[in-house]
Amino acid sequence: MPIPTTDQMTLPVLQHISDGQEYRRLSIINMLRDHFSLTESERRKLGKSGQMEKSLSRKGFIERSRKGHYRITFRGLEVLNQDSDGNFEIEVDDQPPEGAIEKNYQKIREGLASELLQQIKDNTPAFFEKLVIDLLFKMGYGGSREDAQAIGRSGDGGIDGIIKADPLGLNVVYVQAKRWEGKVGAPPVRDFVGALDGEGVQEGIFITTSDFNPAAKEFAERSSKRVILINGSQLARYMIDHNVGVSTTKTYEIKRVDSDYFAENSENP
Description:
Elements: H1 6-16, E1 23-24, H2 25-35, H3 40-49, H4 51-58, E2 62-66, E3 69-72, H5 74-82, H6 97-122, H7 125-138, E4 149-150, E5 161-164, E6 172-178, H8 186-199, E7 203-208, H9 214-222, E8 226-230, H10 232-241, H11 259-262
Parallel strand pairs: 6-7, 7-8
Antiparallel strand pairs: 1-3, 2-3, 4-5, 5-6
């Protein structure tokens, strides 16, 4: 039989991993082989394509817990509980078409953001530091790309990068980029502020793949230095908006009737 579509595979996959535990990708592929009675050749083809897990991740149904391992998300459980017929197209409410498109667009962005953060976690700290400098440069921080520096060396005092705040380089911004699992507390932010003070710098950006707890946010707000905190969701949004680590696959134009074109001139006889 032909390899099943992603929509056909969604229900069996979600049911297979519905207990919330971590499952190896190979285990899921083998389950699909048995469920759809695939030949060994078809199973290998399914395993090589990677389309199933990419599609379900983009839809927000599953997430990669670590390399080669997946688990169901809260949204996946919601969908599993409300739908059992295998039709997992993005739901569209009874609303104007433009509103439905916007809703689905936001869902696509959410899935993409989750995928971006996982890619960052799968790469090295040095790669993350370079990514952050690339992003800040794309966001309009001054100077050339060559002027921006990703330091990333031992004993850097909590400074991972330096970038100009304006094209002339009158001010510089120091950057710290840390991959984090739990929420970042006040001590790392305090150390970063101390590093800024030691360098005689007034502005800094602290970026993490996770989030900051209230104590960290309060310390940054009360600090004599101007410290901007950027959490994982903000980081992913900036990457999408400024085309860092993403590429456009499709573009849709939404058009409307030009009423001015059809308006007759009342002065004409």
